[in-house]
Amino acid sequence: MADQTPQSYANHAQMVPGYHYVTGPLVLAYVVWSIARAASLRDWESHYDLLGAFALFGVYAYTRLFPLKAQDRVIRLEERLRLQRLLPAELQPRIEELRPRQLIALRFASDGEVEGLVRQVLAGTLTEPKAIKQAIRSWRPDHFRV
After folding, report:
1. Which domain holds residue 73?
2. CA distance 90 to 73
């Protein structure tokens, strides 16, 4: 369920407690245990466990990464459409100059300040996503993230 508390740079990161604080440490513990067991026993069964542990870690990692990639593609499309609607005609041809991570960071900027931020990004004064997010004064929340 989406949290509806006001978002800002300080609290915008999406953390899923069951995934990040329970499943992740359990998978990591299993990998470490399997490595230690394979190193000490040196038998085929422990090596099969180690392969299983690495496979489980891969499933854990890709379970998060694949939806994030799909989400980023949708965000980039949404932001391009939004910028076409909000930017003046002279900036619209330059939308394609924005790097994907910059577009993703700009999604948090309100409609009123997005033009100024885009100008700064295109001028090279704001280049990194973290700096773009920190420059936002009127935060546009995104509660529908993966």
Report:
1. 15-135
2. 25
**Is 140 within a domain?**
no
pTM comes to 0.80
The whole-number pLDDT of residue 115 equals: 97
End-to-end CA distance of the chain: 11
The verdict on residue 7 lying in a domain is no
Number of domains in the chain: 1
Start-end of H helices in 42-110: 44-86, 100-106
Distance CA 8, CA 37 (A): 45
Tens of pLDDT along 92-133? 999 999 999 999 999 999 999 999 999 999 999 999 999 999
